[in-house]
Specification:
Length: 788
């Protein structure tokens, strides 16, 4: 009877698979032996099916060991075709993870099994993957691959897709470990995994890895040195928006006892570059925020598009305890600058995260108003489900070449003086401690004022929903002031106080008229309120000047006191209370108890000063100026009122021998002031009550009698003239030239007829007053010399 050996062998194989491996659902569908001899068995056709999957082999040869009859020494596949149904295969995979096993024992068993296997060589195996559920199909090629078990187990595998390398693996199974080299195209692997298992690797690029896998009782231990190039990490599936990065560099990956550790390589570390779509998305989100034009431009231009993870940076994951820890150093080159972030130590667990950090940042001209900025800070951040704590242990900001319009600062420094704690909970920020820091500005030019150094000490704290700040300022070690501020929701308000400061310290920074000197004690307080939303600013300035004294040329004044109170609102300034008191002013005539009251207003480019009252004491009488207004580009007109001026005191000023005069006069002197100076037009002086004029023995009068005898009678009438009427018309030019037209009516006891005396006198009032001042100063100097 003829026996179909191929058929018999196929039936035997199917019987074996059905009864001993029925869960595989595997069946030999075709089997044809081409040649049998003592050294080898060649199959011209061998096909296996598993539901919709099918393996077809041709040129499949079993080589036999000559020293052991029918003992397989080698399997050689010349060409094969594998049709693999992923849908059916996935049903065979375990649904749950199996419990941990002793990896060392498993590895020893694996090695003992390998020792019984023949060498396997595959020259070409075409594989077609397909899934009807996923509507996907792919073709793979396994070529020039082999497993050698004779002298230590060695594995070499080369897998291709679309004529390009997919995975290449060479490994040695030594008694204590598996060591090898793996190269893979992560992009193509990512595509395959995503298409069939809906779990993308989220990373593409080229991977090269030298690895060692060591079995242990607690599990496998892995050590690998890896190199990635042109790798793209895509986190879009996690973030829900464009978030992908290009990664290049080398790193070490270690795994042991459920602990995973990643260390960047000592040569280059890792380079991470944000993809163009990611940068575009981030810029769009920043643009939606209202940071202001300069800050928005700074952020837009300085998104860290490329970040370097420095060599030696380490990240460790403890899987059992769900703990992430390590230390990192990140560096990024910005536009005209750089930023470095160091995490010397961090631990991240489910219930608590603690991160120690250092930040160093410097950049040339980040915004138009700055030449350079440098920032360095260090601290710790801890987070728990209840709250987040941020401790800033050190910090300094250095600014150079600050410019805003006409204001300039060569250098500015902000330095933290004490660690501070910030708490974040339920979306709120809370300063647990006061924030103490100093600020120093050098070579400052503000509003045409120059300062070598402006130093300040600040304290900031939080009370309820308010932020408060107090500062002590020192300007060039000569001026000191204090300030306090409050930030409440949409309002910032505060005040600045200049307390009892020598006026000379302020005026030394102002260009005063050349001949003016002034000193005293000044105090000032500024209160302000600023609405952030509407940018509306309002404020009040009030202060006083006490015990002031000084001079203008040879005009001395003393005991001057002044006060002011001004309001700023809706871009308008209003000063309702401007007052000035002076104890004494010597213009050649002593003026005492001088008082001035007025108001001032400013709106855009227009201003107006209204003098409500101006009065004082003069020559045992008084004077006042009628209310007037002062405005830019307009002449000033008013009237000087004289009351009860003593003629005795007036005559005594000129110290003329042989001239005496009694009585009092009042007067009204209309004046005007313009660019040429001050002038008086047709002023009137008039006596109040009678008086006496005695002119006897005056050298000038006696000489006049000799040179003009016709005047002798009239002048003799003045030797004792009891007048009832005395008036004068007064006119003065802007250069001080003054004309007095005097009319006197009275009676001399030695004359029968009444006396009518008219007199016209020219004098430069400015020169006269200056002469009187010089005479008094000379007398004072002589008296001081005698007293010495």
């Amino acid at each position: 009877m003829a026996v179909n050996f191929d058929h018999l062998l196929r039936l035997s194989a199917n019987y074996y698979l059905k009864h001993y491996h029925s869960e595989l659902k595997l069946e030999v569908s075709a089997l044809k032996i081409e040649q049998i001899n003592p050294d080898f068995i060649t199959f011209s056709d061998l096909a296996l099916t598993q539901e919709k999957s099918q393996l077809s082999l041709s040129g499949f040869q079993l080589q036999l060991a000559p020293e052991k009859p029918y003992w397989l020494s080698r399997l050689i596949l010349e060409k094969g075709q594998l049709l693999l149904d992923i849908d059916s295969l996935s049903q065979l995979l375990p649904k749950e993870k199996s419990a941990g096993t002793d990896s060392s024992a498993f590895y020893r068993q694996l090695l003992s099994i390998f020792a019984t296997l023949p060498e396997i060589r595959i020259k070409a195996l075409n594989t077609e993957l397909f899934s009807h559920q996923k509507k996907a199909a792919d073709k793979l090629l396994l070529e020039d691959s082999h497993l050698t078990f004779t002298a230590g187990t060695k594995v070499s595998m080369n897998l291709k897709t679309d004529q390009q390398d997919l995975v290449s693996l060479q490994s040695d199974f030594e008694p204590g470990a598996v060591a090898g080299k793996l190269t893979a195209d992560l992009g193509k692997l990512n595509s395959l995994v995503e298409r069939y298992f809906d779990q993308p690797l989220m990373i593409t690029g080229e991977l090269s890895s030298d690895f060692t896998l060591v079995p242990a009782a607690a599990g496998w231990a892995l050590t690998s040195s890896n190199q990635v190039s042109n790798s793209r990490l895509d986190l879009s599936g996690v973030t829900g928006e464009a978030a992908s990065f290009v990664v290049d560099g080398d790193f070490i990956l270690n795994y042991r006892d459920a602990a995973l550790e990643m260390i960047t390589g000592q040569d280059t570390g890792l380079r991470i570059k944000a993809a163009a779509d990611t940068v575009k998305t981030l810029k769009a989100k920043l643009k939606q925020q209202d940071f202001g034009q300069d800050i928005d431009r700074l952020l837009q231009e300085n998104i860290p598009q490329q970040v370097f993870v420095s060599p030696g940076s380490t990240v460790a994951l403890d899987i059992n305890n769900q703990l992430l820890s390590g230390h990192l150093q990140l560096y990024s080159q910005l536009k005209k600058g750089e930023i470095t972030i160091k995490l010397p130590e961090f631990t991240i667990a489910e219930q608590k995260q603690v991160i120690n950090w250092q930040l160093d940042y410097q950049q040339q001209q980040p915004i138009k108003q700055l030449g350079k900025v440098a920032l360095s800070s260090a601290g710790e951040m801890s987070h728990s489900p209840a709250e987040t704590k941020l401790t800033i242990k050190a910090g300094e900001i250095l600014l150079t070449e600050i410019r805003h319009q006409e204001q300039k600062v060569q250098q500015g420094t902000f330095a933290l003086t004490k660690p501070t704690l910030i708490q974040l909970s339920d979306g709120t920020i809370q300063l647990s401690d006061k924030l103490f820091f100093t600020s120093t500005f050098e070579q400052v030019e503000v509003s045409q004022q120059s300062f070598g150094e402006i130093w300040a000490e600040h304290a900031v704290w939080q009370a309820a929903d308010n932020f408060r700040a107090e500062s002590v300022w020192r300007l060039d070690d000569s001026l000191s002031l204090t300030s306090e501020h409050l930030v409440n929701n949409n309002i910032v308000k505060g005040r600045a106080i200049l307390d009892s400061t020598p006026l000379s310290e302020l005026l030394g920074r102002v260009e005063l008229p050349e001949l003016l000197t002034l000193d005293g004690q000044i105090s000032n307080e500024l209160n302000y309120e600023f609405e952030l939303e509407t940018r509306a600013l309002s404020g009040k300035v009030s202060g006083q000047l006490v015990n002031s004294f000084g001079s203008y040329d040879d005009i001395a004044f003393s005991d001057i006191n002044a006060g002011w109170s001004c309001f700023w609102q809706l871009a308008k300034l209003s000063c309702g209370q401007l007052g000035l008191n002076s104890g004494q002013v010597n213009v050649g005539v002593n003026i005492a108890d001088m008082q001035s009251r007025g108001t001032f207003s400013w709106d855009k480019n227009n201003w107006l000063y209204h003098l409500n009252s101006f009065k004082g004491k003069l020559l045992d009488g008084g004077f006042s100026i009628t209310p007037l207004e002062v405005a830019p580009g307009q002449d000033i007109s008013g009237e000087l009122i004289l009351e009860h001026i003593s003629l005795t005191e007036l005559v005594a000023l000129q110290q003329q021998p042989g001239i005496e005069m009694t009585g009092f006069i009042d007067g009204k002197l209309p004046f005007s002031y313009n660019a040429d100076g001050i002038s008086i037009n047709q002023g009137k002086l008039l006596n109040q009550g009678g008086g006496l004029i005695k002119v006897d023995g005056n050298p000038a009068v006696e000489e006049l009698k000799q040179t003009q005898p016709q005047l002798k009678f009239s002048l003799d009438a003045l030797k004792e003239l009891h007048y009832q009427h005395l008036d004068s018309e007064v006119s003065m030019m802007s250069d001080g030239s003054t004309l007095l037209k005097v009319s006197v009516q009275g009676k001399n006891p030695e004359l029968v007829e009444p006396v009518h005396f008219n007199y016209q006198h020219d004098e430069n009032l400015f020169l006269l007053l200056r002469t009187l001042r010089l005479a008094e100063r000379l007398s004072e100097n002589i008296e001081k010399a005698i007293n010495k």
